[in-house]
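This protein record is not my work; I was only asked to verify it. Where you disagree with what is written, explain briefly why. This is what I was given:
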Amino acid sequence: MNKINLLIPLFLSLSLNFTAFSQDIDQALDRYLKKDITMVSIEELNAKKSNYLLLDAREQEEYEVSKIENSIWIGYENFSIEALENIVIERYDKIVVYCSIGVRSEIIARQIKEQLQVEIYNLYGGIFLWKNEGFPVVDKNQNYTNRVHGYSKKWGKYLSNAEVVYEK
């Protein structure tokens, strides 16, 4: 048996695992989201990222491990609308908020929408699905990394294509 035939089952197994993780994220989002904020897919965000203002609604220690490139940290626990005062929102087609999988970002997006009356979106599957699908993340020094903060053991299980960390 040649090496390619040996690798086929491995690739099939990895593909099935990524699919299972995506389905798990789908189920979690169905369970936890109110779905009153329109979702944007990771594919759409990747295709038009320069047109979007990308806001990270995770905690600072999560953001320092890795983030989607060109995103701006606004936080979650201590978020205030004043965090957006120095950002020229009007120059972007869309505002997209993300967190680990989309639960915290939906809450923050709702607050922004209510207070600023802007068109705002939640990134479906958050940074976890972004990374699971093979899109890049950068660390606090703007270097590409495979590390993603898992938030907690409960949520970190949804990461399949990254080195999961729980501290800086």
In short: The domain at 3-165 is CATH 3.40.250.10 (Oxidized Rhodanese; domain 1). The two ends are 45 Å apart (CA to CA).
